[in-house]
Amino acid sequence: MRLYNTLTRNHEELVVQDNTVRMYVCGPTVYDLIHIGNARPMIVFDALRRYLESRGYTVIYVQNVTDIEDKIIRRAQEEGRTAEEIAAHYTEEYFRDLAALGVGRPTHSPRATAYVPQMIELVQRLVSSGHAYEVDGDVYFSVASFPAYGKLSGRVRDDQEAGARVEVDEKKRHPGDFALWKRSKPGEPSWPSPWGDGRPGWHTECVVMSRDLLGETIDIHAGGSDLIFPHHENELAQAEALTGKPFVRIWLHNGLLTVRGERMGKSVGNFAYARDVVAKHGGEAVRYFYLSRDWRKPLDFSDDAVAEAKRALDRVYDSLWAAEALPEGGPAAPLRELEALEERFHAALEEDFTTPGALGVLQEIVGIGHQRRQAGDLEGAKAAAALVRRLGGSLGLFQAPRPTTSALADDLIRLLVELRADLRRAKQFALADRVRDKLGELGIDLRDGPEGTTWAIRARSP
User: Fold this and answer.
1) Residue of 84, 179, 380, 423 with fewest CB within 10 Å of its CB?
2) What's the Cα-to-Cα distance from 195 to each of 123, 126, 138, 183, 207, rounded to whole Å?
3) Is 452 or 86 the better-scoring residue by pLDDT?
4) Which pTM does this prediction carry?
5) Three-state DSSP state, 119
6) Complete domains list, the chain, with CATH
């Protein structure tokens, strides 16, 4: 597999040891529910993980939870609760939203507050080696001490803004120096340290957790493109200043979600909560929406766009369930065209995880299945449906089971189908069409073919 590496600005082959992919994806700061834009990296990189696992890799997938940060503290103060209560509540809600989106649980979900002692140790090492300095209880990383600073984002150091989520401190040696340790204000959460009571900087948290769970050099580090600078740049600087070794082999960054061309964000107010979009369209429709577009490019969000994705999803399910409802048709020769399409599916994903191309191939397989069904090749139709299920599953799509009905309902539907056939033989076409239309209103589609009339419950995807 070749992936576009933000660091080198080139497509590079994914090469791992022991057939194991060590992958770190930046997680949420748990001060509020996630919006639908936050869900894009969660879905895209979950799909990448699933695909790698389907190809035989073992994936150690780490996604952190930032449970101490300025926004959490402000939310706690506004609501008269503790930062710990706010973080615990929204962490639980985050995992509930992930489940609704069909995103699997990470192998590890480390909380920042569980790693504070290790963070203090890392900061001490950076101070001792001359890469960091203390000013009145705050500790800053010196960007001048790391000549390679800026190599991920491509920014020139002298032109960079402060790499911290706080206002510029005039006592810093360089405006780009960023906080490793922050002195706590009265009433804020704090931990004892050699520099006084305080808390870790955001950029230090991910370095410590990834090193602990994945080692000094990891295979893939991923997140939204808004994290390239300052967050990922500052992670890289700390980790490589500490060890002199490459921190990450391949950096992946998805494009941001926009609304009418403007970046979606809570500060702008143009966002929709992920759970509200899921309630309206379904989690799998959101997943299909994201995977049907290039993961590295910005993507404009609208209800209409997700609704169209759901219609496309439902059409696939209509075909799958119609094929799966067919009776057994006896043995059939292997479909060489399906084998060629499976190769094209993998080729699309092996080249920079091109999910739109892969979904296009799946649509072609669905079309072949429809043709086989119309031609009376029942086993060919079933083979195409099975292939869509298998390949789609490698991306987390098309796994909903075919709806079933009670034995009595099946008998009643068959009775109506037989009645319609009798009406057509009697040339009472208006009444026959009325039976078909009324069944359609109930979500039951009839399909006439060489082998007679079959029926299927219309897709209502998750």
Assistant:
1) 84
2) 10, 14, 7, 8, 20
3) 86
4) 0.87
5) helix
6) 2-254 (3.40.50.620), 303-393 (1.20.120.640), 407-457 (no CATH)
